[in-house]
Amino acid sequence: MTGPPTPTPAGPPDRRPGGRTARVRAQVLDAVRAELAERGHEGLTMERVAARAGVHRTTVHRRWRDVGGLLADVIDAAGETDWQPPDTGSLRGDLTALNREIQQSLVVRPSLALALMAASFHSEQAARAQTRLWAVRYAQCEVLVGRAAARGELPPGRTDAHGLLMAATAPVHHHLVLLRADPDPLLPERAAAAAVLAAAAGAFTRGGGGGGGDARQ
């Protein structure tokens, strides 16, 4: 699945209960991230996470039940961070900056983003959490299309923001994840430029009825 980047939070925000509960969650999720980075999802176990977090394993089992629960909570925590899409003053600049964030998250070693992608193919809970995260990120990034319309960068009508974002970011994922090629420093801007040209030509413009992911201009 392609989409905007998955930020790696240093710890969970204050959206969940505070005090000891929040501290335990922070310790456990940090341990999950570290274990994923070192061993991948194949080596992730409740026992290793508990030992690394300094938490009794019954606490981990009681709250998260299994590895799938741990993975889902790590992904959900990423969606709780105060991430904002780029604002460079142009659609091409915004999409380029977004692609550079995505590329960095995929090429850094070890890559938590890649580990979570792999894990989502082996855990239904993680897969559902990943889907929720992408939905949130795409919704957040629709502002890029709205700003571009206000600046007159996109044609009149209705722009499928989701389709435009997919077209702009997919080449980076394809290059790094599917082809496993070395990072291309020019690809983030090249992919962004191609998507902008397509959008300006009306490739993502819809007329008539509405649908999810459209940005009115």
From TrEMBL:
<protein>
    <submittedName>
        <fullName>TetR/AcrR family transcriptional regulator</fullName>
    </submittedName>
</protein>
<keyword id="KW-0238">DNA-binding</keyword>
<feature type="DNA-binding region" description="H-T-H motif">
    <location>
        <begin position="45"/>
        <end position="64"/>
    </location>
</feature>
<dbReference type="InterPro" id="IPR011075">
    <property type="entry name" value="TetR_C"/>
</dbReference>
<dbReference type="Pfam" id="PF00440">
    <property type="entry name" value="TetR_N"/>
</dbReference>
<keyword id="KW-0805">Transcription regulation</keyword>
<dbReference type="InterPro" id="IPR036271">
    <property type="entry name" value="Tet_transcr_reg_TetR-rel_C_sf"/>
</dbReference>
<dbReference type="InterPro" id="IPR001647">
    <property type="entry name" value="HTH_TetR"/>
</dbReference>
<dbReference type="GO" id="GO:0000976">
    <property type="term" value="F:transcription cis-regulatory region binding"/>
</dbReference>
<dbReference type="InterPro" id="IPR009057">
    <property type="entry name" value="Homeodomain-like_sf"/>
</dbReference>
<feature type="region of interest" description="Disordered">
    <location>
        <begin position="1"/>
        <end position="20"/>
    </location>
</feature>
<dbReference type="Pfam" id="PF16859">
    <property type="entry name" value="TetR_C_11"/>
</dbReference>
<feature type="compositionally biased region" description="Pro residues">
    <location>
        <begin position="1"/>
        <end position="12"/>
    </location>
</feature>
<keyword id="KW-0804">Transcription</keyword>
<dbReference type="InterPro" id="IPR050109">
    <property type="entry name" value="HTH-type_TetR-like_transc_reg"/>
</dbReference>
<feature type="domain" description="HTH tetR-type">
    <location>
        <begin position="22"/>
        <end position="82"/>
    </location>
</feature>
<dbReference type="GO" id="GO:0003700">
    <property type="term" value="F:DNA-binding transcription factor activity"/>
</dbReference>
